[in-house]
Amino acid sequence: MATAAIFSSLRRRRPPSMEAFLAPVNLSDVALLQTLATVSTKLVSCFSGKSFFFQRKNSRSLIRKIEVFVVSLEYLKDSGSASRLPTTAVVCFKELYLLLHRSNVLLEYCAQSSKLWLMLQNQSISGHFHDLNQELLTFLDVFPLTDVELSEDVREQIELMQKQARKSRLYIDANDESLRIQFFSFLDNFENGRIPDPVELRSFFVDKLGINDAKSCRAEIEFLEEQIVKHEGDVEPTASVLNGFIAVAWYCRFLLFGFEDNEVELQFGSHTKQRKGLMTTEIVETFIAIPKDFCCPISLDLMRDPVIISTGQTFDRSSISRWIEEGHCTCPKTGQLLSNTLLVPNRALKNLIMQLCTARGISYDPPENIDPSVEVLTFALPIKAALEANKATASLLIRGLLSGSKGAQTVAAHGIRLLAKTGKENRALIAEAGAIPHLRKLLSSPIPVAQENSVTAMLNLSIYDKNKSRIMEEEGCLGSIVKVLRFGLTTDARENAAATLFSLSAVHDYKKRIADEGEAVEALAGLLKLGTPRGKKDAVTALFNLSTHTSNCAKLIESGAVTALVGALGNEGVAEEAVGALALIVRQPIGAEAVGREEMAVAGLIGAMRCGTPKGKENAVAVLLELCRSGGASAAERVLRAPALAGLLQTLLFTGTKRARRKAATLAKVFQRCENYSLRFGGPGAGYAYSSSSSSRDSSFVGNVSVPISVSVPVS
């Protein structure tokens, strides 16, 4: 079990917890010696021929010590003296078992880690070797050498090793340390606004470190990125400084190795291969790493100052303030009317966000006006060096987009896609450098991966609010994104185009333009019907955003979006967004009539009431009520004939949200009036026409309905 824990830690490329080391128990003296001999022999055979780029002297010294133990253990095992070991020696050998395993972990760590990481950790890892050497010395001092039967030459080797261990001091390789200092000097150059000499960078990366191509440079970058995540921000150098080194490495990847290295494999679609690096995951996966609740539903960016509005939803203060200032009186997420415009700070969520940023080294800008009564946690801010290095990288990438071959443009678009994935600073500097017009041209590329990279880069850039206007103002850019949505060469390209429209539609003024852009709504409806689970999610969220603009109702009906939304009610992954969009659409009479004409609408809404989230149930009963009010006689009849509705309403009246209970009570009154009408006049029909100007909207439906249902309505 101890071995499994150790090697599990190695696979994670993290130093293992000391709790993973357990000495062997219930072993005879002979079995213990056999185990020690096997472990030490295997360790020597694994590492004696391995070339260590860093920590060469410390590694060789440790391996030589273990070789002496191999000789001693083999002698004891072969001589038959194992059964006559004194108790003190047995205890010491159990300690040796732990030391051997810790040696194995440290050597594997040095053999498997990246060069840049080992260089940055040079002093720390040297300290680990020194600590291990001191523990070996303690073992040798305690071990009863005179009481154990050993040959003279073996005894002399152990005594010599003990003498050398006493003289040993902490050793930090001067050449390794000079490389570490030089790497810091590059970061210092960027910090002071100077770009390091390309000749020095090439000498450092290629000649001194042996990083000879784009692939090996990318592997180094990915390893550094992994350390930030796996150490959860508790890392030295700090996460912000480490991000600076990553930015320098990215700059060198394109400066030294250009754009042609991966041209062939990119053109042939190997981009679909699963990659492990932090920055190779796209914006959708970013929301998995960063909880969705930490991101503003309007801007999709990490919230800087989360506030709660009257509907109970949380938004970033700047985004919701702008929404209200634009004259909106509804919640942008649920469509509910705002009872007031008070913004209540969500301090609990704000503290959680800052803790996440601290742990993961994520860039996080505090709001300009901070309440002094609120304790502010420290977090990793982007250092100037990282921003300057990323700015230099962006210039190289845009140069590749502008003048490179098709393959070079593909690689450059991929670089922008990754650089724009995290941090509004990166998104801003890329757009300011002029990337959007060049990415727009690449949207029509016949190379599938080039098109996918460009639309995904556009998606990542659009997360930053100011870039939304840049994209929308770029002539032909919106149309090109819609064409990718309709005719994209890969599934990912089409899905990311839908996600881009969702991001852009966060701005109210753009909702109408997007809906009117050549068959954009039709394409979203098609993706909602036939797309992958992720594609359906992208499509339904985009349609939801578009449905918040009242002028888009007719377009949504004509384009088949209503039919697609009704069909999505049975899909658990998108049902909540679908019913939310329908709740907005039915507020207009033509929308209610369109939904009422859908044969499966009532059944789908009943299903949402039965199995949906509290918000989904709330919207579902609201849609059913609107169908009774404005959806026409046929729709009203289907609602009132639904056999499962009475029980669901009864449950909702007691367990639903405040709005859901109010809607359910109103719908229950409709049932009671229908029943009373039927009993009084002996006929199967009843009608209630609802006036939009009436608060109770109590009149009659046109049509024959006979539904003998009795639902008790709570007084409160």
From TrEMBL:
A Pfam family matched in the record: PUB10_N
Occurrences of domain U-box (ranges): 289-363
Transmembrane regions listed in the UniProt entry: none
UniProt xrefs under InterPro entries: ARM-like, ARM-type_fold, ARM_PUB, Armadillo, PUB12-19-like_N, RING-Ubox_PUB, Ubox_domain, Znf_RING/FYVE/PHD
Catalytic activity: S-ubiquitinyl-[E2 ubiquitin-conjugating enzyme]-L-cysteine + [acceptor protein]-L-lysine = [E2 ubiquitin-conjugating enzyme]-L-cysteine + N(6)-ubiquitinyl-[acceptor protein]-L-lysine
GO process terms (BP): protein ubiquitination
SUPFAM superfamilies: ARM repeat (SSF48371), RING/U-box (SSF57850)
Start-end of each ARM repeat: 434-476
Enzyme Commission designation: 2.3.2.27
PROSITE patterns referenced in this protein's UniProt entry, alphabetically: ARM_REPEAT (PS50176), U_BOX (PS51698)
Protein keywords: Repeat, Transferase, Ubl conjugation pathway
Protein name stated in the entry: RING-type E3 ubiquitin transferase
Organism for this UniProt entry: Rhizophora mucronata (Asiatic mangrove)
Phylogenetic classification of the source organism: Eukaryota, Viridiplantae, Streptophyta, Embryophyta, Tracheophyta
